[in-house]
Structures are given as C-alpha cells and as structure tokens.
Amino acid sequence: MRNEEAAPGGGVGAAFILPLDGEESLAGRNENSVGRGPLSFVNTDAAIARSVMVEGPGSACVIRPIRGLQPGHTTTRRQGSGAGIMGGVPDRSSFRRRVLAGDTLLGAFVGLGSPPAAEIVGRAGVDWAIVDLEHGFGTEGELVATLHALETTGTAALVRPQSTERLRIGRALDLGAAGVMIPRLETASEVREAVSYLRFPPAGGRGVALLTRGAGLGAVAHGGVAALNDGILGIFQVESGLAVENAREIAAIDGVDVLFVGPADLSHSLGIPGQFDAPAYRDAMERVVAACREAGKAAGILLYGTAALRDHLDLGFRFVGLGSDAGWLVDGARAALKSGREISAPAGVAT
Question: Which of 83, 111, 262, 275 is within CB 3.0–4.6 Å of 239 for a Cys-Cys bond?
C-alpha cells in the first residue's frame, strides 16, 4: 500500500491495516507496499487526529488522511457519513442511524454525469450526495464510477433512479448505492410497494444476487443477505398536494426513513409555481415535518443555497440539500465572468 500523503506530525504510519485473515501494522511500509483484500483502518495517533481511507477499486489502494476524524475512530469513510468495511461488505447502517436519530445532514445532488465532478462535491465535505438519474445528465453507465468517486471522499452515496420500477431501484442498490430517493409517489400503497424493492426477502422483493457491489461482491453468504436490509436508506419525495395529504400515513411505513420535499414539483402541483413564500406552500412543508416528527422519521428538502437554511432548520428539516454540481458550476461561472467584465471594462463604461 503506497503512502501518498503524509499527515502533519507523523503521516499515515499511525494507521493499521486489518485484512480479513489477520492484523498487520502499516508502520514502516514502503512506497511499493500493496494491500489486498477487504480492509479496515484505524488511526491511533492523537497528535494528528485523523483517519485514513482507501481510494480506488481493486487490490492496489492509496491511503489518504480524512479531515475531521477523531483518534481511534475505525472507518473507511468520513465519520458518521459513509460506511466502514465490515466482513468485506460496506457497513452503511451507521449513516441510516444518524438520519433516524435526527442529526442535521447537509448534502447535494450530482447530475452532471461526471465522476470527477461528483468527487469534487464529496471533497467539499457534504454528508451525502444523490446521483440524479431522473433529471441529471448521467446514466447507469457512469453510475459505478460515480459511486466510487463519492465513496473515496467519505460521502454517503445515494441514487435517485430514473423511475420507480423494481429493476431500476434494484439496479442502483446492486451497483452499490447506500440508499435511494424515490420520486413521484403519492399514496401509501405505492410507497409500500416501492419499499419492498429496497429489501431482500422475506422482508421485500429485491432480487438476490451475491456477486454485486451492494452485496460485497461475494463476501456475503446466503444466510447473511437479509441483514443487508438494515443499511439501506429509503428516501421518498413529497411532490404533490396528494402526497402531502397522505404524508402522515406514508411516514409511518417501516422503511420510509426520509420524506423529502421537492420544492419545484410541489409548488407547481399546488398551483403556486416557484412561490416558496406562499402560505399554502409553507403549510404543506409544516404538514410534512409534523408527519415525520410523529413517526420518528427525518424531514428533507432541497434548498437553493443557504439563505433560507436557518428557517428550514427551525421548521424541523434535518436532511437538507444545499444545491447541485450543475447549479454550483453555473453560479461560479456566472460570478467569475461578471467580476471579470467589471474589472476589465474601460472606466465609465457600464457592464
């Protein structure tokens, strides 16, 4: 395993590699060392207060320090956000537990179809990112690479599939998504059916295949498949007046972890397109939050920046999207060009 980045005060030599077949210290490993097999890492150096993570598929990996981790924390992902590797299978249940515990988790949508763009978003420090196959530019063809890119940063990698079909949901999970966001459902019966697609039998109807990323690429035997259900996050969007009406019944369904307001669709459905300050829209949000609070679930929403973040947190939202890779690219490009035009314009000429 190659020591690519040294952390201040001692580097990654304070880490340990824990293969499935034994324990072996990384201290003193040279530039040509290679680690093989499912791995777990722990930082024991209190001076640097960091952990390490694996980057890249296959047996040749790169160790990098992860910001913000406490000494002794065992993980291959950002603390509390992603998943460690347990028994060769990503343990995603810790992130789901944080969601259901009511932690405030900030995230973003990634829809450019670009793994490097997704990695940039992850490296910015978001807790979660949703690969958007419904409205984004990407397809299932780029999904594995995009999930890999997010996972290297410690960000919980989620997917919004292009439809609510069983095969589309199952495909996203098989490719390694830590959870899925399901759009455009309005009734409890529709949601119950979709929840069944998230879970292996006997709890649900997800197809069983052991040689998938979602099942650890063969690391899980048949007897352990059902336990993987506990780590899958179920996010269900509220995008219509009918869904708001049914929010209380939907939130009570086991497997519905987040009710996520889609502002654009919901405002259009209510006949007040884009009027996010309208009383009818505010009332709809409050009803969704109340339904989540009663059922012990998380209320989520996509905002367009941070101007309204405090208000939505006070309202009760805890799973909050702050934007998207495409939106941030547009905003950054426009701001840079506007500033450049102003600076370069001749004196007295309006830009």
Answer: 262
Catalytic hit among 73, 135, 148, 312: 135
Phi first, then psi: what are they for 163, rounded to 5°? -160, 175
Q: How far apart (Å, rounded) are the C-alpha atoms in residues 140 and 129?
A: 16
Domains observed in the chain: 1-76 (no CATH), 92-332 (3.20.20.60)
How do strand 179-182 and strand 258-261 relate by DSSP bridges?
unpaired
Q: Which two three-digit tokens encode residue 3?
A: 């020591």
312 is catalytic: no
Check if the beta carbon of residue 319 is closer than 8 Å to that of residue 302: no
Strand partners, 129: 108, 157
Lowest-confidence region among 37-41, 95-99, 132-136, 286-290: 37-41
How many helical (H) and strand (E) elements, i.e. helices and strands, does the chain have?
11, 16
